[in-house]
Design a protein that fits this description.
mainly alpha; 417 residues; disordered N terminus
Amino acid sequence: MTSNTEQQQHDTFAAIKIPEFKYLLLSRFAFTMGLRMMSTLVGWWIYELTNLPFAIGIVGLSEFLPAFSFALYAGHVIDSSEKKWMLQRGMLLYFVCASMLLLLSTHFTAGHLTHHQMALCIYGIIFCTGTIRAFTGPVFNVILASIVPKKALQNATTWNTGSYLLAAVCGHATGGFLIYSFGVTGTLTTIACFIIIAFIFISQLSKKMPLNIRGEKRTLESVKEGLRFVFKTKELLGAISLDLFAVLFGGAVAMVPVYARDILHVDARGFGWLNGASDMGSILMVIWLTMFPPHKKQGYKLFFAVAGFGLCIIIFGLSSLYALSFLALMASGMLDGFSVVIRGTITQLKTPDNMRGRVISVNSMFINSSNELGQFESGVAAKLLGVVPSVVFGGCMTLLVVVTTWFKAPSLRKMEY
């Protein structure tokens, strides 16, 4: 007979039955929708202003630098702070940044600033969002463990990832449609509304105080403690490293605005679908994993998923057909979605509650920031090699990373949970 614990572990809706978890999901969905629409908008807007693929890379660098620089300190702050207010404060600050971009997009501002000056202002605002993200982004995952019991944590992680990816899909695609229909100003107004909705949902949570408040512990010592834990836990370190370099070199999505306009010759609607293709694939995979979670050889399967991701990026880079490019990005998203769920589950299961802020911030520092650094890398590579060779190069480097990690991290390859 199956035990109650086993039934809950295999119950697709185990975590959804927890009221606070539903509010967390709804808040993250709305917040991610707004942020992904902003990301889509800024990539398209900056390319329209400059006509330079390299400028898209500068956007990524502008967000990467503060997100990476503050990540370790942010982990210490998160572990020693009340989590609900940290999320609320971060959302309010994002709303301010969205409002600044909204002001920048008006005809009045456009009449007083050159395209170059507007681009510089956008870089400055994105630098601010990167700083905010360092302190806000990890809290969604940290707060998860304080809401959901450990026996439902794998299920909650899958739902949490699915909510994020579904919002990313909708945000990317909707961003393209809104740009086409209402322009930059209308899109930014919608983004501000989504941030407000996210704030309202997160306000429904009770306060989430830190589990241990150690006033005597110095900040530097606390930060080092989190780093030591990550480097000691080989499976966690291996998963982070694999994903870090795969995303760094396989960041083809950064060049989607260039492919959409100059290679595939589609308008903003076509760009919106293409920009959301990867995330569509990811959410399809997460839905599948929610119903049929992997029970054996998760580490082994992770390597093949990342290798397949690299192959899809190569196909996208070489394609001049819209349908093939769309399918290649969707397939890459499915494989990436698998790796995200596996890595997220490893992180949640391997991390003690009192260190979640620091460990997840380290994870954020190397993984989430690698998206922006990968965007910068793509911009630089496109400038040096050309757009198509740069994307193909990134896919080939991803395959090389998989082969190297296969031999360097045997404990990850053999890991099961």
